[in-house]
Write a structure and sequence with these properties.
325 residues, alpha/beta, Quinone Oxidoreductase, Chain A, domain 1, Rossmann fold, 2 domains, seven-stranded mixed β-sheet, six-stranded parallel β-sheet, globular
């Protein structure tokens, strides 16, 4: 089969599509014919050796996947050959076939295409869980999104509007800000300008930010925290800027703020019932069209390395997927 391979210490520079042996499912695993897989920033970190969990080379990157079951290993009871499924593989999805633990897969609802089903994994789950379960957003609240043009951020724009919030999107360039506005944001604020703090406060108004979703970190965290109103909820999701911020806790004291963290695996482990409810609701929104993900890049498997490098450069906005068959 054909697969994108990361073969050396050069990370993204050492990506290439190669012929490799077909995987075989072991106990508790199923084998999928991959139909679509999303390309996420985390995939690029794993390939570049900068993720907290290191994967020995050579390996095939790719986490979020949708496809059709072609074989099942021993002890598998939930799926049969021919079933349409989607889920998270962690690595291996950027290939014609991938084996995935059965427990990490879900049946794809009728009416939900493979291209949207593969998006029901980490990015849209992260946006849904953080808004609904972590921040507990309410209609009419101000929701500030840092890194709003990315995959998680654009998902949060769409979901925030679906939940009746007023969305203030923060991004780094005029093109990204225009994308956020087109995606539904009520206000857009460039966070790379020197007056970011003042602009953000003005966009939030006297009420301040009720919720901040931070996928970026770095120098932008403190101004966003300062923009929260009394009782605001600040949700830490990631550090795309590359720097873990240090914030003055006196702001939390004076504002009565709450700083919360979200990591998809930990949330699943500690709140399995709530995570399941959220996933069912998210899949329903994708299936009936209430959510229309902005797929701004579609690549073939042969051009998967280009897709990875584009996402890694953070010049891409919206959602990028690889369509395999």
């Amino acid at each position: 089969m054909r697969a994108l391979r990361c073969e050396g210490p050069g990370g993204l520079a050492d990506l290439g599509v190669r012929d490799v042996l077909d995987p075989e499912p072991g106990p508790g695993q199923v084998l999928l014919d991959v139909r679509a897989a999303s390309v996420d920033f985390v995939d690029t970190l794993i390939a570049d050796g900068r993720y907290q969990l290191r994967v020995p080379v050579p390996f095939t990157p790719g986490n979020n996947v949708a496809g059709v079951v072609t074989a099942v290993g021993p002890d598998c009871t939930r799926f049969a050959v021919g079933d349409r499924v989607h889920g998270m593989a962690f690595v291996g999805a950027f290939a014609e076939r991938v084996r995935v633990p059965e427990a990490q897969l879900r049946a794809t609802p009728d009416g939900l295409g493979h291209d949207l089903a593969c998006l029901a994994g980490s990015n849209y789950r992260t946006a849904y869980d953080t808004l609904v379960s972590t921040a507990r957003v309410r209609p009419g609240e101000n929701v500030v999104i840092l890194g709003a043009s990315g995959a998680v951020g654009s998902a949060a724009i769409a979901l925030g509007k679906a939940f009746g919030a007023r969305v203030i999107a923060c991004a780094s360039s005029p093109e990204k800000l225009e994308f956020c506005r087109t995606a539904g944001a009520d206000e857009v604020v460039p966070y790379t300008e020197p007056d970011f703090k003042d602009r953000l406060k003005a966009a939030c108004g006297e009420r301040g930010a009720d919720v901040v979703l931070d996928t970026v970190g770095g120098d932008y965290a403190e101004p966003a925290l300062r923009a929260t109103g009394y009782g605001g909820r600040y949700v830490v999701i990631g550090f795309a800027a590359g720097e873990v911020p240090r914030v003055p806790l006196n702001l939390v004291l004076l504002k009565g703020s709450t700083i919360l963290g979200y990591e998809i695996g930990a949330f699943q482990r500690h709140h399995p019932a709530e995570a399941e409810t959220n996933r069912e609701a998210l899949e329903a929104m994708l299936t009936d069209g209430r959510l229309k993900p902005p797929i701004t890049g579609r690549y073939t498997l042969e051009s998967a390395a280009e897709a990875m490098r584009t996402v890694a450069g953070r010049e891409k906005y919206g959602v990028t997927i690889i369509e395999v068959t």
